[in-house]
Amino acid sequence: MNAKQSGGPAHNAKVMNRFDLTKRLVGQLKRDEAVIGGIGNANFDLWASGQRPQNFYMLGSMGLAIPIALGVAIAQPKRHVVALEGDGSLLMQLGCLATVAMQAPKNLTIVVWDNGIYQITGAQPTASASTADLVAIARGAGLANSAWAADETEFDRLFASALKDGGPSLIAARIDSQPGVGATDRDPVQIRTRFMQGLGVKR
């Protein structure tokens, strides 16, 4: 088994496209899974992959996609919950990984898009561009089921496995610096209301 297959360092993984991976991920959703899209390109690509009432699109809350997803996973243990987060946002909120590990919800999957830059604010490099291995950090926080996706096929396999409620799981993918596709409708009241309806907590 090589470093790619075993979830080795990010530099051993293929550079993929976030929108393509997001579409592949959405294509596997069959049971009204909740998806929390982190700020910026993570939720732009989620929006462009097809709006679902179970999708929540973050607006101006950097680093909070995983904490929100954790809350939903705890509140609705029969529903699988997916957090889509960027490397910069995760680096701002690394403590959430330890909290996820302690709570250990089996129905939570974290997907980290790592392009090594703060793309929205001017492409400044993040720590993951040089010194930080986000999968190693997640494992150190207690998330043993964490791995780099070596390529698209392995991404599909890792995500399919995670959806079987064997979590919590973290899947990290090296992505290119292509901008997000489309733009989320920035109406926070509408986003919240539709998400609550999608989760069956509001008529």
Compact summary:
This protein has 203 residues and is α/β, with parallel strands linked by helices.
Features:
about 200 residues; alpha/beta; six-stranded parallel sheet; two-stranded antiparallel ribbon; 8 helices; about 35% helix; disordered N terminus
Account of the protein in words:
The chain is α/β, with parallel strands linked by helices. It has eight helices and eight strands. It has helices spanning 18-27, 41-48, 65-75, 87-92, 95-103, 134-140, 152-162, 188-198, and strands at residues 34-37, 55-57, 81-86, 108-114, 117-118, 124-125, 146-148, 169-174. The strands form two sheets. It has a six-stranded parallel β-sheet, sandwiched between helices. Strands 5-6 form a two-stranded antiparallel ribbon. Strand 1 (34-37), helix 2 and strand 2 (55-57) form a beta-alpha-beta unit. Helix 1 (18-27) crosses helix 2 and helix 3 runs parallel beside helix 5.
Count of beta strands:
8
Largest sheet: 6 strands, parallel
- Our estimate of the beta-strand percent is 15-25%
The rounded distance between the terminal residues' Cα atoms is 50 Å
Tell me the overall shape: globular
Mean pLDDT: 89
Please state how the strands of the largest beta sheet are arranged side by side: 2-1-3-4-8-7
How many helical stretches?
Answer: 8
Please write the string of helix (H) and strand (E) elements.
Answer: HEHEHEHHEEEHEHEH
Question: Helix/strand-derived class?
Answer: alpha/beta
Give the fraction of residues assigned to helices.
25-40%
| Rg over alpha carbons | 15 Å
